[in-house]
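Write out this protein's structure.
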Amino acid sequence: MNKVILMGRLTRDPEVRYTQGESNTAVARYTLAVDRRFQRRDNPDAQTADFIGIVAFGKAGEFAEKYLKKGTKVVVTGRIQTGSYTNKDGQKVYTTDVVAEDQEFAESKNASSNSGFDSQSSNSGFNNSSNERPVAAGDGFMNIPDGIDEELPFN
């Protein structure tokens, strides 16, 4: 079985190209920065993230083009694909990419805009009245204020 699930942030906006021919299929490429769980004891200053190449075809590529941008936190489900080609210097280059089968947002727009990646100020989505009630944020999700979880039917 060849299945991979990754969660991380885009390091740059997706690069999207369309194939030539009748179908004009979208092919989106981007790099996902995935945090490592542990630091190395022998070198605490070592890189703590892996940078993984993602390729999305067709509708997934169109989704990436329309909705994903640098700093967006996503969960990507897909498969690992290896390949090789000969570069202009005649050297054989080996590649490893994740072919995206599913891409989902891992946080709301408000949270991603506050993540430090080209952030812009955003409304928290909370109603500041004394009778604090959940209100829709700009992304359609409800922000639930602290202390209201007793009223939810699940915990």
